[in-house]
From TrEMBL:
Keyword Cell inner membrane included in the entry's annotation: yes
Pfam families: ThrE_2
Primary location group: membrane
Membrane topology: Multi-pass membrane protein
Protein name, per record: Threonine/Serine exporter ThrE domain-containing protein
Organism of derivation: Terrisporobacter mayombei
């Protein structure tokens, strides 16, 4: 990763997230919010990687934040949370790792391909698990509030 200031990481990931939100046909009223979600998620990821050096844990925590903010924005803006989650996690996706895995495979460097591929799978799993934890918790709390209201 480059040694840019954190605010530049936020700005660039904000722009990338808005671009993907446009590409995915998100409503125009949600573009800035989606950009904020992606910018905050990437900034937290970058900070945690610099702090701990653990990509998997940093991706998990950043995905937790992205999912949590997306759930809040979904309620505030009366939109599905997925409109914010999908563009918000785009900066976290390990595209370079996937590319390097394929490059190693094409070059018949199977040891590096397996090592990089496993790392990419763990990062992808961490992102998925971060989203799953928050989404499941929100749905469970919603179900509990419905049951409580029915009594």
């Amino acid at each position: 990763m480059t040694d840019m200031p954190l605010y530049l990481h936020f700005i660039y990931s904000f722009i990338a997230t808005v671009g993907f939100a446009i590409f995915l046909n998100a409503p125009k009223s949600t573009l800035i919010s989606s950009g904020l979600v992606g910018g905050l998620g990437w900034s937290l990821f970058y900070y945690l990687v610099k702090l701990s050096g653990n990509d998997i844990l940093a991706n998990f925590i950043a995905a937790l934040l992205v999912s949590y903010i997306s759930e809040i924005l979904a309620r505030k803006l009366k939109q599905p949370a997925i409109i914010f989650v999908i563009p918000g996690i785009i900066p976290l996706v390990p595209g370079l790792g996937m590319y390097n895995t394929m490059l190693y495979l094409v070059q018949h460097d199977y040891n590096n391909a397996i090592a990089k591929g496993a790392d990419v799978l763990f990062v992808g799993g961490a992102i998925s698990l971060g989203i799953l934890v928050v989404t499941s918790l929100v749905k469970t709390l919603h179900m509990l509030s419905i049951k409580k209201a029915a009594k």
